[in-house]
């Protein structure tokens, strides 16, 4: 399993434990959407994502869109440096509305 799931107080928490690339996209999509069904809110930790391409970014967009359609908040947390780089490349950090913590030593 590339995603670990825990539930507490109506919040389903997922921890992505794999890369978010085209090679993992199909299986990861299914796991992420199951997480959305698992609670009133969804929180996705991206701390362990070491590689991400446009397919991984599209999964983030899909999950956010499906959460809005279902009336369930979706939050991405603990963004890895790779995820931050992809969000910066596409200039989409504000779209997701999640607080971003820059790694220490990063230029402001």
Task: Briefly summarize what is shown.
This protein has four helices and four strands.
Structure description:
The protein has 108 residues and is an alpha/beta fold. Helix content is 41%, strand content 19%. It is globular. The protein starts with a strand and ends in a 12-residue tail after the last helix.
Which features does this protein show?
108 residues; 4 helices; four-stranded mixed β-sheet; alpha/beta
What is the helix content?
A: 40-55%
**What's the β-strand tally?**
4
Rg from alpha-carbon coordinates: 13 Å
DSSP summary: helix tally: 4
Mean model confidence by pLDDT: 89
Largest sheet: 4 strands, mixed
Structural topology:
Blueprint (H helix, E strand, L loop, with lengths): L2 E6 L2 E6 L8 H13 L3 E5 L8 H17 L3 E4 L3 H10 L2 H4 L12
Parallel strand pairs: 2-3, 3-4
Antiparallel strand pairs: 1-2
Helix pairs in contact: 1-2
